[in-house]
Write a structure and sequence with these properties.
Helices cover about 10% and strands about 35% of the residues. The chain has one helix and nine strands; from the N terminus they run αβββββββββ. The strands form two sheets. Strands 1-2-9-4-7 form a five-stranded antiparallel beta sheet, with no helix packed on it. Strands 3-8-5-6 form a four-stranded antiparallel beta sheet, with no helix packed on it.
Amino acid sequence: QKQKVPGTFKRYLVPFGVLLLCLWAVPSAFANVLGNPGFEESIGDSALSWDNTNGTVQTTAVPAGFTAFPEGRAAIVQDATSDFTFQIQKNIQPGDLVVFSALAISSVAAGGGSGGQLRIEFKQYDLTTGVDFLIRDATSDLITSTNAPSTGAYVRFTVSAPAPPGTGLVVFTIRRQGANAGTVVYDDANGEINPVALNITASKTSV
C-alpha cells in the first residue's frame, strides 16, 4: 500500500527545489573577480594578482601608528607619491557595470589632490597586437587622514561606472596621488562586474 506524502512536506518541497536550483545557477559575475583580494599572497602578476613593479608592497607588519589589518594577516602599503598597483580583467563587455572597492586608512594630509585612490580604467584592446589604450576612467574619493585616519577603523571606499563603447579590458588600480607625504594601507579589495543582489522568495504552494 502506497503511503501518502504529508501535505505540509509537499507544500515546501517544490519551493525548496527551486531555491537550490537558483543558488546553483548564480553566474560567477556576481562574485569578486579579483585575484588575491585580501593581499594574503605575494603580489607580482597583474593578470592573476597585483603588480609589484611600481612601489606598492605587500606586508604582514602593521606600519607604526596604524590600526591593525582588518582582514587576515597582510595588506598592501603605499608610502611614496608615485606608488600604484593594478590588476587586469579581460572578461568585460561594453555596458557592463564595474564596481571596485577596498578598505583603507591613511596618514596623508588632505589638500593639493593628495591621498590614496581607487581607479577603474576602461581600455580598448587589440587582440592581434595586444596593444591597449585608455577610453575612460572613474575614481574614488581621495583617501586621507581626514576621512580615513590611520588610527581609526578602516573605511570602505568604492567607485563604480559602466563600461563605455569599445571596452575590451578593465584595469583595477590602487594608487597614490598628490605631493603630501604619508602612508596609505589597503585591505580586502573587491571587484565585481554586473553585481546583482540575489532575492529569492519561497512561497507556500497549495495542494
